[in-house]
Design goal:
By secondary structure, the protein is of the alpha/beta class. Helices cover about 45% and strands about 10% of the residues. Bound molecules: ligand A1D88. Ligand A1D88 binds next to helix 4 and strand 6.
């Protein structure tokens, strides 16, 4: 009998389940039913053919990250991972760019730093998600609360790495700060040549999921980025190996589709095994350990003098002014530094 490739790459005959379960379907309980599309608070989800498409959907805020983002991203990735039709998952952003990082307007408007004169509540550890949802992210002035919050965010973003199926980030416009945390957890980044990647918050506070930076571009280049907060153009990102390719912006959609289509021709079992084999190399390099340390420092960095000053500035003048003050001394802050003329 010739092998049934369709069954290996898609739906399986009922007999397959019966062999394993003796017909007891409850063993598969909890597996979400495949859906074709839905709209969340921060993203949309759509399956077309063998491709699951997750699209950040807060264009008016540069797709900036809220407390819902990691939860919704992880849920969408899991849904795609468990959908037998899907071979590959692509994440992108609507509007001007991929993602501008954590939503500074929420923190500015709701007081990321403690209000002046407020006292820490010793020993109170609030659920970080509840804090973020209530827009009361500081709760108690405790770096470990911030660590717990950041590690929850990063675990959500790392769903792109941990998914069994290949994940692709399509980056146009900008992937800044937390936006790079998301993109770098994808197995492949395809970006527009004029896209911009960077982690400017390291100039005052905030530490990225650094393990993925070191893995993608090597420690020396990663340090170059994080010591300065400078940003890379998409073209440079591809030259450094951060992105797999960087076509002109008007070809980004077509080139990404071509890659997705080629990946999705491969049987799902092959894709999963290839990814797990390569992930094991990556995990042996310790990317998750450095991710963990990064989130500890990220929590602490909010409590340094400079971290506190940025947040206070943000809360008093609005985040745009705080960002401008942070970035202006480093040159034309709306351009990738590697493309700026040398003095
Ligand atoms: C550990 C910490 C991690 C973090 O992630 S902290 C957050 C760090 N992020 C930043 O510092 C980025 C701040 N934003 C910018 O520098 C710029 O924006 C961009 C370079 C991302 C994009 O510049 P451009 O292409 O000129 O677009 P635009 O018109 O500035 O952005 C579109 C709209 O998106 C809003 N936006 C962008 N990023 C954020 C953000 N992080 N939080 C809240 N809103 C954001 C903008 O303000 C604007 O909206 P409007 O037209 O109403 O001003």
């Amino acid at each position: 009998m010739s092998p049934d490739y369709e069954n290996h790459s898609g739906t399986r005959p009922a007999a397959w389940r019966d062999d394993l379960t003796g017909g007891d379907d409850s063993l598969f309980a909890g597996r979400p039913e495949p859906v074709n599309e839905y709209t969340g608070r921060t993203l949309t989800y759509e399956v077309t053919g063998r491709i699951a498409r997750i699209t950040f959907n807060r264009p008016e805020r540069g797709n900036a990250i809220t407390a819902d983002t990691p939860i919704e991203l992880a849920a969408a990735v899991e849904r795609a991972d468990l959908d037998p039709r899907v071979h590959v998952i692509v994440v992108s952003g609507r509007g001007k760019g991929f993602c501008g990082g954590y939503d500074l307007s929420i923190f500015a408007e709701n007081g990321f730093a403690p209000a002046e004169g407020a006292q820490p509540t010793a020993g109170t550890v609030l659920d970080p998600v509840v804090q973020a949802r209530n827009h009361n992210p500081w709760g108690t002035w405790d770096p470990m609360v911030d660590y717990a919050m950041m590690s929850r965010f990063n675990r959500g973003f790392a769903s792109l790495l941990h998914a069994n199926k290949p994940t692709v980030a399509k980056v146009h416009g900008f992937a800044i700060a937390g936006g790079t945390d998301i993109a770098l957890f994808a197995d492949q980044i395809v970006c527009a040549e004029d896209a911009r990647f960077g982690y400017p918050p390291t100039r005052t506070w905030g530490i990225p999921a650094a393990g993925m930076w070191a893995h993608r571009v090597g420690d020396q280049r990663a340090k170059r980025m994080l010591f300065t907060g400078d940003s890379l153009s998409g073209k440079q990102a591809a030259e450094w190996g951060l992105a797999i390719e960087a076509p002109p912006a008007d070809e980004l959609d077509a080139r990404t589709e071509e890659l997705l289509e080629r990946i999705s021709r491969v049987p799902i079992n092959q894709l999963v095994m290839a990814k797990l084999a390569l992930n094991s190399a990556l995990l042996n390099q310790g990317v998750l350990n450095s991710g963990m340390i990064s989130t500890v420092f990220d929590g602490i960095s909010r409590h340094t003098r400079e971290g506190y000053a940025f947040q206070l500035r943000s809360a008093t003048t609005g985040f745009r002014e705080a960002v401008r003050e942070r970035d202006e001394p480093f040159g034309d802050w709306k351009r990738a530094q590697f493309e700026q003329p040398k003095d």
